[in-house]
Amino acid sequence: MKMITRRQFAKRMAGAAAAVAAFGGVQAEAVQKKKAGANERLGVALIGSGGRGRSLLDDFMRTGQVDIVAIADVDDEMLEKGLNKVESVQGKRPTGYRDFRKILDRKDVDAVIVATPDHWHALPTIYACQAGKDVYVEKPLAKTIQEGRAMVNAARRYNRIVQVGTQQRSAEHFRKAVEYVQSGKLGKIRMVRAWAYLDWKGGLGNPPDGTPPATVDYDFWLGPAPKRPFNPARFHFTFRWFWDYSGGLMTDWGAHMVDIAMWAMGEDPLGAMAIGGKYGYPDDIMETPDTQQSIIEFPSFSLLWEHMIGCGIGPWQREHGVEFHGVNGILVVDRGGWEVYAETDKIDRPDRIYKMMPVPRQSGSSDYSYTHVQNFVDAVKSRQKPVADVEIGHKSVIACHLANIAVRLRRYVRWDPIKEEVVGDPEAQRLVIAEYRKPWELPKI
Ligand SMILES: NC(=O)c1ccc[n+]([C@@H]2O[C@H](COP(=O)([O-])OP(=O)(O)OC[C@H]3O[C@@H](n4cnc5c(N)ncnc54)[C@H](O)[C@@H]3O)[C@@H](O)[C@H]2O)c1
Question: Which of 55, 171, 190, 434 could form a disulfide with 365 if both were Cys (CB 3.0 to 4.6 A apart)?
Answer without folding.
Answer: 171
